[in-house]
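Renewal narrative, Specific Aim 1. Our central claim is that a sequence can be written position by position from structural information alone. The example that follows is taken directly from our test logs and has not been curated for this report. It begins with the structure tokens describing the chain, in the order in which they were read.
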């Protein structure tokens, strides 16, 4: 009798231990699956430019945000890559301009031009380097117009700007142009400096512009 009871006890302990072992394995497997799912989800990257609508595969995406007052600098994002921003430390007050190749999408050059106390000749020299097959992105910060000359406005107009002649002191201006261009660019906005309507006291609200550009075929 004692042997029978002992055997039954051993069997119960064995079954109980086996049950706990299998349960722990199932729990571990479940946690591992959750970890894998979480890992996979975390690898799904949101577009860097933060665009609302993705562009077709044969087009370039872009998003330009002008500066806010004289505090927050502008951002130029192209083809899901930030070209100019405060984080990259390559922006400044005035006009921030990036030039890319319309076929490859490669950044050719970028710079910023102080339009309050700077030398406008630096801007003219930069714009004169724009070649056929180039796309030009512009975002203003603080003041885009004090040093602006008729020659500079003409060069922007030749790149497709239809609003450059209206850009004045502390307006917010964003623009996408190209060379050559047959018609005026559809990608351009100005937020006028109006103390009665300004969001930031002496500065208007920032301008946020996004869109898709056809890739130039060689």
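The sequence written for that structure reads:
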């Amino acid at each position: 009798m004692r042997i029978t009871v002992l055997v039954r006890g051993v069997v119960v302990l064995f079954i109980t231990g086996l049950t706990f072992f299998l349960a722990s394995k199932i729990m571990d497997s479940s946690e591992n699956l959750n970890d894998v799912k979480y890992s996979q989800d975390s690898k799904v990257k949101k577009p860097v430019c933060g665009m609302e609508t993705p562009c077709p595969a044969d087009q370039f995406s872009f998003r330009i945000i002008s500066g806010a007052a004289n505090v927050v600098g502008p951002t130029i994002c192209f083809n899901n890559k930030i070209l100019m921003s405060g984080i990259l430390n390559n922006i400044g007050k005035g006009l921030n301009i990036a030039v890319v190749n319309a076929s490859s999408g490669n950044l050719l050059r970028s710079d910023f031009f102080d339009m309050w106390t700077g030398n406008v000749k630096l801007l003219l020299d930069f714009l004169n380097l724009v070649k056929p097959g180039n796309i030009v992105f512009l975002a203003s910060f603080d003041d885009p117009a004090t040093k602006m000359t008729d020659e500079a406005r003409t060069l922007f107009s030749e790149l497709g700007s239809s609003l450059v002649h209206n850009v004045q002191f502390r307006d917010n201006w964003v623009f996408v142009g190209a060379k050559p261009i047959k018609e005026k660019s559809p990608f351009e906005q100005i937020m006028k400096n109006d103390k009665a309507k300004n969001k930031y006291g002496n500065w208007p609200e920032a301008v946020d512009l996004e869109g898709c550009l056809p890739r130039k075929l060689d």
